[in-house]
Amino acid sequence: MKVAVLGAKGRMGAEAVAAINAASDLTLSAALDLGDSLDQLVSSGTEIVVDFTTPDSVMKNLEFAIQNGIHVVVGTTGFDESKLNLLKSMLSKHPKVGALIAPNFGLGAVLMMQFSQTAAKYFESVEIVEMHHAHKVDAPSGTAIRTAEMITAARKQSKKPAMPDSTKSEIAGARGGKVGDVPVHSIRSHGYVAHQEVIFGDLGETLTIRHDSINRAGFMPGVLIGIRNVAKNPGLTVGLENYMGGM
Ligand code: NAP
To answer: Does residue 9's CB lie within 6 angstroms of at least one atom of ligand 1?
Structure first.
């Protein structure tokens, strides 16, 4: 398979380039960064694009790839409902093209989200604390948003009442930002890569589910699963867990 990387000079893109070069079944067809022409995707015969750019750049890249029949594996974060709807409408005109949007390629992180979704049915309270390196431009992280959405859906399904919270006065932001039902607290500091704790509480007990990405190479097994499965799954897929059943 001929695979190109967009954002190839970035932290994640550079790891993706290395992982593709190390995989015997994949050929790196192009490694493009800001300012490079996307026409190279077509001239190099690229079949799959991996995008690790920025929330501002990604939609233009995906539009170009999809219009040219190229499958897309997307790690760039910042996908809200309106971006996903736009993507669905682009894909509807190219029904053979597959698109994977993966808020987190860490296999442990995907499991953390699934375990959290399961636990959500059993605890009255839940909050998320996520910790990332100081260069991260968006808050909360895509992983935290996705986890909070999955927990909110599980709480809704099991008809959980509102969480207990007696706060009467607060400094703005002290109780975090809410995603669905769930308060999310974002910490940015040198020394971190990507980490998340999901803290559940009920009478007399707490349960903490924690995932740590120690380095960016840890995301690459998940990126390779995405690359190897995207062409078999036309249309939009959100979440790597949808490809992990066949592992
Ligand atoms: P980064 O180091 O800033 O890399 C982004 C790279 O993309 C930079 O080299 C940037 O160039 C380049 N770029 C910007 N616009 C472009 C365009 N239109 N075409 C081609 N390249 C372009 O960021 P990062 O840490 O690698 O993270 C990239 C994205 O992945 C972020 O959204 C981050 O949140 C996300 N992420 C996802 C996962 C996951 O598992 N899904 C894990 C980690 C990070 P300039 O520097 O010149 O602007």
So the answer is: yes
